[in-house]
Design goal:
Oligomer: single chain
Organism: Saccharomycopsis crataegensis
Largest sheet: 3 strands, parallel
Radius of gyration: 21 Å
Number of domains: 2
Structural class: alpha/beta
Family: Belongs to the class-I pyridoxal-phosphate-dependent aminotransferase family.
GO biological process, one term: lysine biosynthetic process via aminoadipic acid
Protein name: Aminotransferase class I/classII domain-containing protein
GO molecular function: 2-aminoadipate transaminase activity; aromatic-amino-acid transaminase activity
Helix content: 40-55%
Number of strands: 7
Number of helices: 5
Length: 146
């Protein structure tokens, strides 16, 4: 059974994390959470890697962590890496506005997909991709789903 350390903060909330990661966290938190420029501090990345290994037990061996300031920066990076102006991406009907406002100025075309309680409807996805392919247009490079 894994040991957890509990620490009360000023709002009387309990913050629990495994005891093994507590010492790593405490040793780097003053430095890691300071402004560090475009590169993440090595100590923060080391902490996140160790935490992920111990807590989440990834079945994969070849993974890395790239810390970002939030999901919009991550999405922006994906668009910049994978898309060129004029490329198409598929998006759920009710996608986050910030995600669409990140894609459109880069010249990326968004095609809306109908969804149900489980997300994008597979038959609709198949149908839309078949139409795109038969028209001779390039297939979408990404699917944005929540």
């Amino acid at each position: 059974m894994e040991k957890f350390s509990a620490k009360k903060n000023s709002k009387s909330e309990t913050n629990c994390r495994p005891a093994e990661t507590t010492s790593i966290f405490n040793s780097c938190r003053g430095y890691c959470f300071a402004i560090s420029g475009p590169q993440s501090p090595a100590q923060l990345v080391d902490f996140l890697v160790e935490h992920t290994k111990k807590i989440h037990s990834s079945p994969h061996n070849d993974w890395e962590i790239i810390p970002t300031v939030g999901s919009t920066q991550s999405w922006d990076s994906c668009i910049r890496v994978f898309c060129d102006p004029g490329d198409t991406i598929l998006v759920e009907k009710y996608a986050f506005t910030s995600a669409m406002k990140t894609a459109v100025p880069k010249g990326v075309i968004t095609l809306t997909m109908e969804i149900d309680y489980s997300g994008i409807i597979p038959e609709m996805l198949e149908e839309k991709l078949a139409k795109i392919k038969s028209s001779g247009a390039k297939l979408p490079k990404l699917i944005y789903t929540v």
